Amino acid sequence: MKHEKTLSDTLANNRRSSYSGVSMCEDDDCLDAMTDNEPQIIETLSSAVTTILGGLGENPEREGLLKTPERVAKSLRFLTKGYRENPEELLKKAVFKESYDEMVLVKDIELFSMCEHHMLPFFGKAHVAYIPDGKIVGLSKIARVVEVYARRLQVQERLTQQIRDAIQDVLNPKGVGVIIEAKHMCMVMRGVEKQNSVTTTSAMSGEFISSPSTRSEFLRLIHNRS
Ligand SMILES: [Zn+2]
């Protein structure tokens, strides 16, 4: 518990710093929170990409590469847009009082992220479950929380814990279970490991830790591919 608190404090600090100078979109389905100085950011990133192209021995002036720096810059901004969104605020907008107290599971949530060590994609599926304690949340918001954390530079382990902590903090349910299964292009493309290896991570809280039967029901439901 102590560890979780520290982690969410860190997150809160990170969020505060990434939000400075950012005008957040009020609409919770708005995926493009833009900063006031977006053109400046694109320019800075583009020039860095030009440097990278030169460093690779390419000629950034040749026709095929002329617009590449700007395209890469815009693509990177999209792939990291999760920095400009607040997952806990997003959840808070869709919390309802409800006495349902069985497990709620959203499985096979598609996930695309980028590893912070190589800035290469990793992708796969997230399975998120919780046991309500008087409050439930709109199901689509669970998938959105996965997306917001995934659209940042990540390690799979931290991504898994951040999703658990956001749901735990906002809903205060009897427990949260998160499992992510993903393929990492930094392993596949660089030939470090077998090409088809899948990395599985899990983060649990409450009854998912204290009750073996809850945990095994969670695992059984995830792998029930009927
Ligand atoms: Zn990597």
Automatic annotation (TrEMBL):
GO terms for cellular component: cytoplasm. The keyword Membrane does not apply. InterPro entries: GTP-CH-I_C/QueF (IPR043133), GTP-CH-I_N (IPR043134), GTP_CycHdrlase_I (IPR001474), GTP_CycHdrlase_I_CS (IPR018234), GTP_CycHdrlase_I_dom (IPR020602). GO terms for molecular function: GTP binding; GTP cyclohydrolase I activity; zinc ion binding. Keywords: GTP-binding, Hydrolase, Metal-binding, Nucleotide-binding, One-carbon metabolism, Zinc. It is an enzyme of class 3 (hydrolase). GO terms for biological process: one-carbon metabolic process; tetrahydrobiopterin biosynthetic process; tetrahydrofolate biosynthetic process. Pathway: Cofactor biosynthesis; 7,8-dihydroneopterin triphosphate biosynthesis; 7,8-dihydroneopterin triphosphate from GTP: step 1/1. Its EC number is 3.5.4.16. Residues 47-222 form the GTP cyclohydrolase I domain. Homopolymer. This is GTP cyclohydrolase 1. It comes from Prosthecochloris aestuarii (strain DSM 271 / SK 413). The gene is folE.
